[in-house]
Amino acid sequence: MIALCLFFLCFAPNHVDVNFYNLPHSFYFSITQIDHNPKAETLEVSMKVFIDDLEEALETNFNQKTHLGSAKELCKTDSLIHLYLKQNFYIEVNEQTVEQRFLGREIEEDAIWCYIEIPNCPSVQSIKVTNHVFVDLFDRQQNVVHLKVGQQKKSLILNQDRTEGLVEFAQP
User: Fold this and answer.
1) Does residue 18 lie within any of the structural domains?
2) CA distance 33 to 43
3) pTM for the whole structure
4) Which residues share a beta bridge with 44?
């Protein structure tokens, strides 16, 4: 069943929306989309995770109950999310460490989208993704990463045993 869900997530067209709300939460995964925007010379990163998993990670790592999406939400929640992602998700472009700008987040049912921008990326030959998100909390955590540069689409499945992957793109 897990393999079937991961296959769907990896090979489904980009316009298909995965509804986290209807999935049993015995699956531990995140979905990250990384798109190169040549006009803006940026990488645009969108990461979708379960709210309860993110809250557990923030509480475990920073000893803070955030109450995401509720009236009791901490005012410093965005700073904690940014710090957690900075410590657990990073990217190298063309073998160079890059700056990540946390743009914000939005809640969608029982999931949350986190948005990151990586500036100064006029061309992309390779992207190395390191994703430790939740792997210290859940043994079965799967972090699916979809990458798009030009018309080229590639995917990675990262987990506790393999937290990083390198993808190379052919140049036009």
Assistant:
1) no
2) 10
3) 0.83
4) 35, 117
